[in-house]
Design brief:
Length: 70
């Protein structure tokens, strides 16, 4: 699978794995078919899921850099 580059932050390469995009598409498609009225809250939830995972992984990288780990 392929990674999509999002740029750099604090010298850390930011990449989005293609399976994460597939997961979002699958959940959105499933809800669009079976439970359309709840699509917007689900998209908001997916956005916050992405942001929380992003922040979590970013801090892993920041701690590693502060400890001298590359």
């Amino acid at each position: 699978m392929r990674n999509f580059s999002l740029g750099k932050l604090f010298g850390i390469r930011l990449e989005l794995h293609s399976t994460f995009i597939l997961l979002i598409a699958a959940i959105t498609g499933f809800l669009a078919i079976f439970d359309f009225p709840s699509l917007v809250p689900t998209l908001v939830l997916l956005f916050f899921l992405f942001v929380s995972v992003f922040i979590h992984e970013l801090f892993h990288s920041i701690v590693a850099i502060s400890k001298g780990i590359k």
